Amino acid sequence: MSPVKRADLEAVYARLSGPLFRGPIASARTVEELEAARVEALGRKSGLTELLKGLKDLSLDEKREFAPKVQALKAEFEALVEKRRAELEAAADEASLQSLDLDLSLPALAPARGRRHPLAQTLDEMAAIFGLMGYSWAEGPLVEDERHNFEALNIPEHHAARDLQDTFYLQDMPLLLRTHTSPVQIRTMESVRPPLRVICPGRVFRHEAVDATHSAVFHQVEGLAVDKGITFADLKGTLQTFLQRLFGPKTKTRFLPSYYPFTEPSADVYASCIFCSGSGCPICKRTGWIEIMGAGMVHPNVFKAVDYDPEVWSGFAFGIGVDRVAMLRLGVPDLRLFYENDLRFLKQFDESLL
C-alpha cells in the first residue's frame, strides 16, 4: 500500500479517536439523538466504515498492526452507544413512574381465586359421605345403548316407563344420551362379581322443558349394594345415615310406596324439611316433608340380566338429584341459575357454605 493511503487511514483513525465523535453520544438527551450520533459514528457512510473498508488495501504486516486498533475503536463506540441507551431508557422509566400516582411499596393485589362450582361441591360431599360408608366411585359413558339404559334395567321396548324418560336419541344410530346413571350399575355388575357397593355420580339428559325446577341436563348420584342377606331395613338404615350426614343429625326420613321398573319393592324417600324442621312452611308445601330420592330393592330381572343369581344375592339401589339437593341447601329458588355461569351468582357460594 502506498504511504499516502496509509497516512489517510491514520488521519481518519486519529480524528475518530478524538472527543469529536464521542461527545454527541455521551451528550445525547433522547433516543432519537443517540441514534443520529450512532449513525454518524458507525453508519454505512461513517469514517469508521471507511477505515474498515480500507483495511483490505493494506499489506499483511500493516493489517496485523492496524486492524486490531480499528476493531477496538469500533467496539468502544458500540459500548458507548449501548451504555447511553440504557441510561436514557432508565431515565424514561423513572420519569414515567414519577408521573404516576403509584406507591410501589404497597402490597400487590391478590389474584382472583377460583372455586369449585356449587353443584360440584355438593356432588363431592355426597360422594364423600358414601365413601365413608364403604362405597366406591364408578363411572360410565354419557352415550349409552338401549340395553344398558333400558333393557337390562327391566325396561323393555314399548314399556310405559320409557315415555317417562323423554330420551335424546342419536340420529341414525342405535344410541342415546343416558337418562340416568343406572347404566353404570349394570356395567359394574357385568364386570364385578358380588358383593359390591358402588355409587355412580354423573350428568344425565332428559328431553324436558326447562323451568325453575327442571332441566334437560342435570346430575345424579345413584347407589347400589349387592350381597347375601341384604334387606329393605339395610336400605332404610343406609339412607337415614346419609341424609343425617347431609342435612343434619335431626333429619327424619319416611318411605312411601312407589314404582320403579328396576326395583321391587320401590319407595320414594322423604326427609323432614330443613327449613321448618317439619313444622310446615311454603318450601315443603306445609307438609313438613320434602321428597329427596327414589329407592328400592333390586328387581330379580335386573340380576338375571347381569348373570347374578337372585336366589343367592339381594341388593338395594337408590338415586338422588344433586341439583335439587344444592337448591335446598343453598336456598336457590331457580335451577337455571346454576347453569348460567354468572359470576355474580357463583361467587356467593364459598366452599365453607356446604
Task: Tell me what the structure shows.
It is elongated and about 115 Å long. α3 (31-42) packs antiparallel against α5 (60-99). The strands form 2 sheets. The chain has a 7-stranded mixed beta sheet, with helices on both faces. The protein has a two-stranded antiparallel ribbon with strand order 2-3. The protein has helices spanning 3-17, 19-27, 31-42, 47-54, 60-99, 118-132, 146-149, 160-165, 182-191, 232-247, 300-305, 322-330, 343-346; strands spanning 136-137, 143-145, 175-177, 196-205, 217-227, 253-260, 263-272, 289-298, 314-321. It contains 13 helices and 9 strands. The model has no long low-confidence stretch (mean pLDDT 84). The protein is α+β, with helices and mostly antiparallel strands and 354 residues long. 44% of the residues lie in helices and 18% in strands. 28% of the residues are buried. The chain folds into 2 domains: 3-99; 118-353, Bira Bifunctional Protein, Domain 2 (BirA Bifunctional Protein, domain 2, 2-Layer Sandwich), CATH 3.30.930.10.
Protein traits:
seven-stranded mixed β-sheet, alpha+beta, BirA Bifunctional Protein, domain 2, 2 domains, 13 helices, 354 residues, elongated
